[in-house]
Write a structure and sequence with these properties.
The complex is a heterodimer of chains A (about 170) and B (about 475). By secondary structure, chain A is mainly α. Chain A has two domains: about 80 residues, NADH-ubiquinone/plastoquinone oxidoreductase chain 6, subunit NuoJ (Four Helix Bundle (Hemerythrin (Met), subunit A)); about 45 residues. In chain A, helix 1 packs antiparallel against helix 2 and helix 2 runs antiparallel to helix 3. Chain B has a domain of about 200 residues. Helix content of chain B is about 70%, strand content about 0%. Chain B has 19 helices and two strands. In chain B, strand 1 and strand 2 form a beta hairpin. Chain B starts with 11 loop residues before the first helix and ends in a 6-residue tail after the last helix. The chains are: A mainly alpha (about 170), B mainly alpha (about 475). Chains A and B meet through helix 4 and helix 6 of A and helix 1, helix 4, helix 5 and helix 8 of B.
Chain lengths: ~170, ~475
């Protein structure tokens, strides 16, 4: 018996799988970047199915909305994006194929043979409040420390760009 | 709500380093601040932090099972302050560092320091990831900021790609671990993995190996070592010296803390796995070092092989092994930093070919003799401290009856002798044919190398103080 969540699960799976193939195999970088939007959107759909309402919205806002738009802007600023020689499909040799295929095979076999301890989905209501409480209680230390990482990344980016301008 | 502010009393050094990050990053906005002696200020902060960690005592679990403060974390933090102090001294004596960027460089070094401190004290996978990233990201930047070497951009990009790949693998493995056990603390993980249907199943090994990948990247253990020679060669030499010591030590300490709460049957399996990685790492590092003509690449491969030797102490999985690792680390720091400082003095521009050092003994006898002490110590020749360190590593491995590991390590020690002695042969026996050149380095550089060499001789003869220091390294005390 297939319920409505299962139907949506397979729809999102097809969306992610199809668009990731487009991302990898498209000859036009801009089309790849647009296809990436649907991959990220499909992942947000998974979050919804798992009851993570806040995560789903964040996924759409940050990844699909923010980072992907940046990617598209970046792609538009590069020259000759529609030329095939600057495009992304590439064949890196037979060893890479064996390596990547082998990894995929190992993951498929192992993940298929594993019984995961699963919990049934309970309706917790909106998760925003719980996430906020956890961030300021149990996870306060990583939450605060990560800001140092962001400061360092920002300063580093500015210094590198500044140096490039001067030389 | 719980007030977590009193927790900060237990981690004064962490708070101090955090404040210093802010001072160095924000401080540059203040006008005319570049006239202040920023190097002296940074050294002062590091000394205060060193004393703060020395004054602490007792064992504390803080921030809802996020970090553990104990003598293990305190002593490793002290080592980190010493390494950064030496790096700052090297940076102020090197021409490869842009002196306009001192504030940013010290801010990035403080960030790395904070990351390493969280790595050695973390007991939660989330904190581990944050710590590793706090070390990785500024390291990429420090490699990229080399104004003299155009290859540094390429090397930094390689470093970033490998680093993010390793982090991705690690996070994937951690998600498996969380899926299997529902816990992210180290105790919760290993306890959750102890059920008989999980122990020894394929997913158990896959999840743990992937998680260890990110840590192996920091130690530059096989198979996550490919970035090492390129990044080390293109980075400014003081940064290379720093990267070859500090993040490795932090990675090893994190590995020991991760394995500290293993159940007996798990520790058996993990010991075998780590000893295989150790053997591969030292063998690959040594044999690749044999054919290097660039001294920085040679020292990069030598540092890979030393990571393999240090992993021997991790593989035995007991207190004796952890103390021997701590015993070897100060010796490793002295000989490695000394060798890199000598290179800073002897090199002209970006030329680090070993052939350009012919007949250096006749020009700078004291420097070359001190470098020879460091090199012999790296190779593990008897009267020097490196020999004692290796001796103790062999001792704990043989006591645990890991004979194959001991044999492979023995063969590797002999092989490594060849390339260390080759460098000295070029410097001491070969005749110089190039005309006289002027050395622009300061005399302080030679003093630094000599002050690395003297303790190496001293500890080679009388190592009891170091042994006493190492015996204080106990987890959860």
């Amino acid at each position: 018996m297939i319920g409505i969540p299962e139907i949506f699960f397979y729809i999102f799976c097809a969306l992610i799988f199809g668009s990731s193939l487009l991302v990898v195999f498209s000859y036009n970088l801009l089309r790849s970047a647009f296809a990436l939007f649907f991959v990220l959107f499909g992942i947000a759909g998974f979050y919804v199915l798992l009851g993570g309402d806040f995560l789903a919205v964040i996924q759409i806002m940050v990844y699909a909305g923010g980072i992907n738009i940046l990617l598209i802007f970046g792609t538009m600023m590069t020259g000759s994006i529609s030329q095939p020689e600057t495009s992304n499909p590439s064949f890196q040799g037979i060893l890479t194929l064996i390596g990547g295929g082998g990894l995929l095979l190992i993951l498929l076999i192992i993940l298929n043979h594993t019984t995961w301890p699963s919990q049934s989905l309970i309706d917790h209501g909106p998760t925003t409040k719980q996430i906020g409480q956890l961030l300021l209680r149990n996870y306060i230390l990583p939450f605060e420390v990560i800001s140092f990482l962001l400061v360092a990344a920002m300063v580093g980016a500015i210094v590198l760009i500044n140096k490039g301008e001067r030389s | 709500m719980v007030n977590t502010l009193p927790y900060l009393n237990f981690i004064p050094a962490y708070v101090l380093i955090g404040i210093s990050i802010l001072i160095f990053f924000v401080g540059k906005a203040v006008p005319k601040i570049s006239r202040l002696p920023v190097t002296v200020f940074f050294i002062f902060i590091l000394c205060i932090a060193f004393m703060m960690e020395g004054a602490g005592s007792g064992s504390q679990v803080l921030f809802f099972n996020m970090i553990q403060i104990d003598s293990f974390s305190r002593l490793y933090n002290q080592l980190f302050f010493l390494v950064i102090l030496s790096t700052v001294l090297m940076m102020s004596n090197s021409e490869e560092i842009d002196s306009d960027l001192r504030w940013e460089n010290y801010g990035l070094l403080s960030t790395i320091c904070l990351g390493m401190m969280f790595m050695v004290s973390s007991k939660h996978l989330l904190m581990t990831v944050v710590g590793i990233e706090l070390v990785s990201l500024p390291s990429y930047l420090l490699v990229a900021m080399n104004k003299k070497n155009p290859a540094s951009k390429e090397a930094a990009l390689k470093y970033v790609l490998f680093g993010s790949f390793a982090t991705g693998i690690m996070l994937y493995g951690m998600s498996f671990l969380f899926g299997l056990t529902g816990s992210l603390t180290f105790e919760g993980l290993w306890n959750g993995l102890s059920g008989y249907h999980i122990l020894g199943s394929p997913i158990y090994f896959l999840a743990i190996f992937m998680t260890l990948g990110g840590i192996a990247f920091k130690i530059s253990a096989v198979p996550f070592h490919f970035w090492t020679p390129d990044a080390y060669q293109a980075a400014p030499t003081p940064i290379t010296a720093f990267l070859s010591c500090a993040p490795k030590v932090a990675g090893l300490a994190l590995l020991m803390r991760f394995f500290a709460v293993l159940l007996p049957e798990q520790s058996e399996q993990m010991g075998v796995f780590i000893s295989i990685v150790a053997m591969l790492t030292m063998t690959l590092g040594n044999f690749a070092a044999l054919k290097q003509t660039d001294i920085k690449r040679l020292l990069a491969y030598s540092s890979i092989s030393h990571a393999g030797f240090l992993l021997m102490g991790v593989a035995v999985m007991n207190d004796a092994g952890r103390q021997v690792v701590f015993f070897y680390i100060p010796i490793y720091l002295l000989m490695n930093l000394g060798a890199f400082m000598a290179i800073i003095y002897l090199s002209k521009g970006t030329n680090f070919q070993i052939d350009s050092y012919k007949g250096m003994i006749y020009k700078k006898p004291l420097l070359v003799v001190s470098l020879a002490v460091c090199m012999f110590s790296l190779a593990g020749i008897p009267p020097f401290a490196g020999f004692i360190g290796k001796l103790y590593l062999f001792k704990v491995v043989i006591e645990k009856e890991m004979f194959l590991l001991a044999i492979v390590a023995g063969i590797n020690s002999v092989v490594s002798l060849y390339y260390y002695v080759y460098v000295l042969k070029v410097m001491i026996i070969d005749k110089d044919i190039t005309p006289e050149i002027e050395f622009k380095g300061k005399p302080a550089t030679i003093a630094f190398v000599a002050s690395c060499a003297v303790p190496l001789v001293f500890f080679g003869i009388y190592w009891v103080p170091l042994l006493d220091w190492a015996s204080k390294v106990v987890l959860f005390q």
